[in-house]
Amino acid sequence: MPLFKPNITNGLVIGGNEIGLSDDDIVNFIKVQDGSSTYVSASEALLNSDIYSIVFQLSSDLATSVLHADDNRMQALIDNPNGNWSNTHSFWQSVFAQLLLGGEAFAYRWRNVNGTDQRWEYLRPSQVSVFALRDYSGLFYNVTFDSPEVGVIQNIPVSDMIHFRLLSQNGGATGVSPLRSLASELAIKKSSNNLTLSALAKSVMAPGILKIDTGLVNSETKSAISRKFVQQMTSSGNGPVVIDKLADYTPLEVKGDVSKLLAQTDWTSKQIAKAYGVPDSILNGTGDQQSSLQMIGGEYAKSLTRYSSAIVSELKNKLNTQVSMDIKPAIDPVNDDYTTNIATFQQNGLLSAEQAQWLLKNSGYLPQDMPEYEPNGKEDANNDPN
Q1: How confident is the model at residue 357 (pLDDT cuts 50, 70, 90)?
Q2: Among candidates 27, 30, 26, 6, which has minimal Cα distance to 18?
Q3: Cα 240 to chain centroid, rounded
């Protein structure tokens, strides 16, 4: 509970009503000089297939990663954060998807009278208003809950709110959405799409040109000849069309300039991948032709680690326990890289065969009841008839 009333506002006051800085409605008043908005809403961004793909993949992989807490009670909450509302993967994917779209995500900690966590509730950014204490020593929150039985709770202390942030411009109090950096790119892509559709429509407006060497004819006669020719093409069942020696038909093709317009979508894909810090090959781009799959996988693992650091730091701070995030289940789901590394370590003498077998059993790659490894010398001695 904050000790001081804030002497600052966290939004715009318009007509006596305050609009929070995290509210979508504020974008109606954020304009650049030419009158166009620089804001990209999450709902609009998800209509872009590249953004949807990258947010889905990153949030799913982060949710697939395993969060470990030293405190058993907190581990139980991490494994089942919101009871019967949804499954664990869906909850964490929703939180991480919102973090990727908005630069921050919220979860309210419902507690009993003893202060023990019972469940965590995911909150949309539009439900949460963030305020600073008067002396800027901390934050507090006003939240509008979906349940009519709860309604609005004001002055929620920072200890009751899990607040994930990415890049910040105010010392880590709030986060900045990666979509901000894509406002110009998405505007360009929208204009490019309109131009491409217009060019395509005009380029295929006529299937070809039919020239007839019969002197000047009026427009009605030209139209009649055209309809008759199309009728002949249709009745031929896509077979060859027979024309007399005075006629010449030339089919039209899509011009190279239009093909170049169609290829411009790769540029925006690379910009979106750059904004989220991942290799553009995960958006089905060509990527670096010299890069191996292992190098691309390593770069993607680094990207996941950047996001996991923001997640782990917040959980450590709020749960008062050591928390770690294992991304291996996301980047190596079938243990191919893991087993390859173990085999390499054994070949280089860094691991014995027994240690390698123990590691593979402990990871679940080999069954626990598998017979123990025996060196060739022992097997030969046991098989020696003498």
Answers
A1: confident
A2: 26
A3: 50
145 CB neighbour count, 10 Å cutoff: 14
195-215 burial code (b ≥16 CB/10 A, e <16): ebeebeeeeeeeeeebebeee
What is the Cα–Cα distance from 251 to 241, expressed in whole angstroms? 12
Identify the band that residue 92 occupies on the pLDDT scale cut at 50, 70 and 90: very high
Q: Which range among 319-323, 330-334, 357-361, 370-374 shows the weakest confidence by mean pLDDT?
A: 370-374
Cβ-proximal residues to 138 (8 Å cutoff; 6+ apart), any chain: 2, 132, 158
Residue 171: which region, alpha, beta or left (left: phi > 0; alpha: psi -120 to 50)? left
Report whether 309 contacts 322 (CB < 8 A). no
Per the CB < 8 A criterion, the answer to whether 96 and 62 are in contact is yes
CB 70 within 8 Å of CB 321: yes
H helix or E strand, kind and range, residue 106: strand 104-111
The dihedral through the CA atoms of 177, 181, 184, 190 has a sign that is: negative
N-to-C CA span, the chain:
84
pTM of the model: 0.68
Query: For residue 156, which of 173, 138, 174 has the smallest C-alpha distance?
Result: 138
Yes or no: say if 103 and 166 are a contact pair by the CB < 8 Å rule: yes
Whether 276 contacts 178, CB under 8 Å: yes
Instruction: Return the biggest CA–CA distance within the chain.
Output: 111
* Residue among 134, 127, 124 nearest 153 (CA): 127
